[in-house]
């Protein structure tokens, strides 16, 4: 079978099935945002993420500092999605000949600025040469008193999200549409300037700001929005063996996304449902929970449905970004 038929998540399931015999210290291994390892009284969280030039980022419209910020941010988001606190970051780099030492200095300046803000220590890593583009691989270690997985959702729980979604996807669309202009700005002074209307959307894509949940005592399951709301909600449904019902008029869409989508004649709700890299937290909890998050639906026993503003109900699939799948 070709990987384009199996897809990223099919491949992960295949690997997970082959790696069932694990140490008893591993509470959760493959299949969540981070692995959970118990050592004595402590619970350690370990997550790893790769970013590859040409797949995850384009150096013609991101600075190395912005890239460094995002590189650490996506790892922090995984730790937050498990209810943990990030602590130690290990960085491995595959560096092509075209990169200068100043570029790597700038990359680390972005990493270190967010690390200081987030209480993360850079603890080690590896470097090697790359024949084809810049490769970033990060491993972040965190800790948690109470860990939240994808597998705890129960029928009757509400479905909540901590921020607007679709902004990052629109930011990427805007960057691609303005690529020549952005490249010109970048070459001149490495400080990218954008119109006020679009700056928030573009910043959300280039420099996401993950935030932890303040009160997680009643949260039953959680994941971050990295691949898209529908596909990430489907992960919760798969692991919890439940269904979901979500309402399109409850999906939080920012004013900036609505305006930009209107100008480009795109559907903002579709971007909110299928766009990725927002790094908001999607979680389930009792419906009467006191929270500032947006309630977008509820967990049901079976089936996955979207209800539109006219009350029409349709099934949804796990749509979003998936490596290897034919686009």
Rg (CA only):
20 Å
Alpha plus pi helix count? 9
- Taking the alpha carbons of the first and last residues, their distance comes to 17 Å
Helix content: 25-40%
Order of strands side by side in the largest beta sheet? 8-10-7-11-9-12-13
Strand content: 15-25%
**Beta-strand segment tally:** 13
State the CATH superfamily name of the largest domain.
Answer: PurM-like C-terminal domain
Question: Spans with pLDDT under 50 lasting ≥5 residues?
Answer: none
User: What is the level-2 CATH architecture name of the largest domain?
Assistant: Alpha-Beta Complex
Q: What do the pLDDT scores average to?
A: 87
Q: Characteristics of this structure?
A:
327 residues, alpha+beta, 60s Ribosomal Protein L30, Chain: A, Phosphoribosyl-aminoimidazole Synthetase, Chain A, domain 2, 6-stranded mixed beta sheet, 9 helices, globular
Structure description:
Helices cover 35% and strands 24% of the residues. It is α+β, with helices and mostly antiparallel strands. The strands form 2 sheets. Strands 8-10-7-11-9-12-13 form a 7-stranded mixed beta sheet, with helices on both faces. Helix 2 runs parallel beside helix 3 (101-118), helix 4 (167-177) packs across helix 6 and helix 6 (196-206) crosses helix 8.
Summarize the structure.
By secondary structure, the protein is α+β, with helices and mostly antiparallel strands. The protein has helices at residues 3-18, 64-80, 101-118, 167-177, 179-189, 196-206, 229-240, 255-264, 268-274, and strands at 26-28, 35-39, 42-52, 85-95, 121-129, 135-143, 158-161, 221-224, 243-247, 281-285, 294-300, 304-307, 313-315. The protein starts with a helix and ends in a 12-residue tail after the last strand.
